Amino acid sequence: MRQIGEAQLDDIALGAGVLGTGGGGDPYIGKLLAQQSVREYGPVTVVDVSEVDDDALVIPAGMMGAPTVMVEKLPHGNEIVHAFERLQHHLGGRATHTMSLEIGGLNSVVPFCLAARLGLPVVDADLMGRAFPELQMCLPGVFGIDCAPMAVADDKGNASIVEGVTNAWTERLSRSLTVDMGCSSMIALYPMAGHQLRETTITGSLATAEALGRLIRETREAHGDPIAAILERCDGHHLFSGKVLDVERRTERGFARAHVRIAGLDGDAGSNFHLRTQNEHLVAEREGEVLASVPDLIIVLDSETGQPITTEELRYGFRVAVVALPCDPRWRSEAALDLVGPRYFGYDFDYVPIEQRVNGAG
Amino acid sequence: MRQIGEAQLDDIALGAGVLGTGGGGDPYIGKLLAQQSVREYGPVTVVDVSEVDDDALVIPAGMMGAPTVMVEKLPHGNEIVHAFERLQHHLGGRATHTMSLEIGGLNSVVPFCLAARLGLPVVDADLMGRAFPELQMCLPGVFGIDCAPMAVADDKGNASIVEGVTNAWTERLSRSLTVDMGCSSMIALYPMAGHQLRETTITGSLATAEALGRLIRETREAHGDPIAAILERCDGHHLFSGKVLDVERRTERGFARAHVRIAGLDGDAGSNFHLRTQNEHLVAEREGEVLASVPDLIIVLDSETGQPITTEELRYGFRVAVVALPCDPRWRSEAALDLVGPRYFGYDFDYVPIEQRVNGAG
């Protein structure tokens, strides 16, 4: 058990920018919201999964929608309480804890807005170990835990409880509601008993994000190489370096889709690179050859500062390094790859773990 | 208080075909479902509004979607129980009664499926006195009663509780869910206390539909003129007679839209007529001149038998008489016309009551 205040939120948000793989909404925005809540209501208690009682009622909460919209249409903080309380009402019980839906992007810290307001502890864990674009792409789902009942709420006061017959149906129905709500909504979902957290979530992910953020910050302060530090800490691989030529964006069915073209620089000069994105980066290619794919993490970093760059920020002229980090090993089972592998997203190739791709190519 | 069995359902459904103004789904389908339920579970008790206790919990129920889809994707009867029970759970109480959302089309009798299964009485009233395409077009809404909380359910087991901040938002959100569910869903909505029914609903509408159906049946049996009988009973007006030339249909945003062209016959020979339809007929025109519009009822009848014809049945070659009946006078207030008048549907003219149009033209 520990207290999280403004300073720790700085580091968590920076680390979550890396783990967001381009999506999840700009964690800088989430950080400002969380820090404002902490200033107003006091620091938030974070507990480890081992400290959560077996019969605790844990309700993850966050934002849903296109990150391009989320960062322009800021929540005032009460909508997430609205969503959370609707789900509590539906369940007929009070939550004992909340937690992050995804450790990538602004959803890493949005639960702190809720926790500060309601005086609830946050569990140090998340459902993805990164960010993914769709709600059924949560590890508890792989272990048979229902996303539903789920609450969706917006800034205008609209709210809904969604109970899909599968997690994919819950995603589909809540996505349509989110589109109607203006491509951005606040959600509470995957209600779980404490004992269900142990095997089915990514534990310690707030600590992981915080340590990663601190590492980047301290390496910068020491005039070191933050990109090298990230790769060493996370067993990551440098994919390529270059200059952004073009970002073709479209907001489609509630998702921010993009195709990013990057011209190689330095050792990669003369090569062209492509990123395919649905909120998060899905596939990295060099001259048509796949270098990395979901569920491994593909991350665009500023080549000087190591600052993670979200897809909505990315634009012509940016000098970037693209790196890949291995995902949680549980995402590599056959059942998990059916949910989050490249074929799910419409790509005609099988997932190959990043370390095998790198060794095969090297 | 009276019992409704298979025979009465025949007459109610026939009358509801007239009051459906082309939409609301083919009442023949609703009748088969209701009669099957009555055969299986026994007759249903119908009570007058005056017999309902002030603190009764009345939950109207029915189908939502495009009638073209509703009549092909038949419910098996349990989905409506599913929707109803979700709303009861959300409200934390048991309903004492159910009732029809609209007396036009299949929704006039769908509540009998529910009532038979759950042993609930049906209140002899509805929320429209006809059929309308959108959920906020209910008379209780004009008196400030909320459509929400509302339950939506489908045949697959998906369900949702929708709480729009206005009735128009509840319509919009539940329409998106209905489109995802395959353009047809079962709904429970406008939960009301008994005392709220008295001023805000159309009372006696099941009796009205039954009497109208019986009149048509008996007039046919006596080789009389059923169209003349309908006009006399309902203070209606004959608009024109002709042969259907073309029905241009499209299913759009969950609605069945249509543009019907009719060539005049008999006294109307040489004239062309048009009907504009969104589930229900909205506007009737002769050579560009408006003859009748919402909220008055525009009805297409078989010119020989007086049988009401739904928009999805209508096709080239049908010989039809188009008639108009005055709507409930409460639909003619300024507030009500904002909800259901021609301008709401995008037409650039003000509503003129049918009897004034006829007198003005005559």
UniProtKB/TrEMBL annotation, chains A, B:
Domain S-Me-THD-like C-terminal span(s) in chain numbering: 166-354
Location of the S-Me-THD N-terminal domain: 8-163
Domain of life from the UniProt record: Bacteria
Stored Gene3D superfamilies: CV3147-like, CV3147-like domain
Any single Pfam family the record assigns to this protein: S-Me-THD_N
Protein's UniProt name: DUF917 domain-containing protein
